[in-house]
Amino acid sequence: MKKIEIYDPPMCCSTGICGPSVDEKLVRFAADLDWLKSQGVIVERYNLSQQPAEFVKNSTVKTMLEKEGNDCLPIIFADCSVVHKGSYPLRETLAGIAGLSIAEAQTQYSASVRELVAIGAAIACNCEMCFKFHYDQARKLGVSDADMLAAVDTGIMVKNVSAQSMKDLAYKYLKKENQNEGGKVAKASCCSGSSCC
Fold first, then answer.
1. DSSP state letter for 188
2. Whole-number Å distance between alpha carbons of 6 and 29
3. Is the pLDDT confidence value at 60 over 80?
4. CB 68 within 8 A of CB 61
5. How far apart are CA 143 and CA 27, in angstroms?
6. What pLDDT, on the 0 to 100 scale, is given for residue 15?
């Protein structure tokens, strides 16, 4: 199993995707690291402003910083060897570093997409707690309000279509019962003698 370590430049938090202005490269990289973890890769990340001792403890990182300064950051190790430095690589590059196939790397189901799907699902099933949780998660990943609103609109559309379908089904059954009862409304019983519940 591959182990990848990232030594980040000084950032406000462990991933750099907090605060009012978020760097899209950091958002993408955080999602790509989540994807690596989902593929069974061990990922460890160190932030110079929060974990300086880790930078001193690693002699290779310490030497590179002394020679090149912060320009060499981020430094990325795979199984204790430096494989990339000075920029955040794309998912395809990370996949190669981790020994994963390019096809696996090209999935569109990122951490951000997962949260958008969850937001739409929360709306469709009227789960307030679910919406609040996934809204917070999407915010942390830097997902825009416009994308979240699109997911909300999709969830509402799905919910409305399914609600209309159930309404149509209920009316169809009730009208049929009314005709059988000579125009009188039959007394309904839920699932009596059936296996629907």
1. P
2. 11
3. yes
4. no
5. 9
6. 79
